[in-house]
Design brief:
Elements (H helix, E strand, L loop, with lengths): L2 H7 L4 E6 L4 H17 L4 E6 L4 H6 L7 E6 L2 E7 L4 H9 L4
Parallel strand pairs: 1-2
Antiparallel strand pairs: 1-3, 3-4
Helix pairs in contact: 2-4
Length: 99
């Protein structure tokens, strides 16, 4: 099991940001995700997944646009959305799954 798989299989929610270095909107998500992390602290994990470096994950999770955010917990997808997403929307979905 990879560390990515170990994270998404865990009991703590994980926000995965599928993005790319060349993607302008992806760069806009960086401060948003820092804000989210500041509010949830250790109660959730935030991971960045470069679609150019991990094409198998892109295929596995059917990523068709970047940025795409997916919230996992216990190996299940709880929420996903593509595009630039405001922190309050991410937090709304994340807080429903924080123990």
């Amino acid at each position: 099991m990879t560390s990515f798989e170990a994270h998404i299989q865990g009991n703590k929610p994980v926000v995965v940001d599928f993005s790319a270095e060349w993607c302008g909107p992806c760069k806009l998500m960086e401060p948003v995700l820092h804000q989210v992390k500041g509010q949830v602290g250790e109660r959730a994990t935030i991971l960045k997944m470069d679609i150019d470096k991990y094409p198998d994950s892109v295929s596995l999770y059917n990523i068709r646009a970047v940025p795409t955010l997916i919230i996992f917990k216990g190996g299940e997808i709880l929420w996903r959305k593509s595009g630039v997403i405001p922190a309050h929307e991410i937090l709304q979905h994340l807080n429903m799954h924080i123990n």
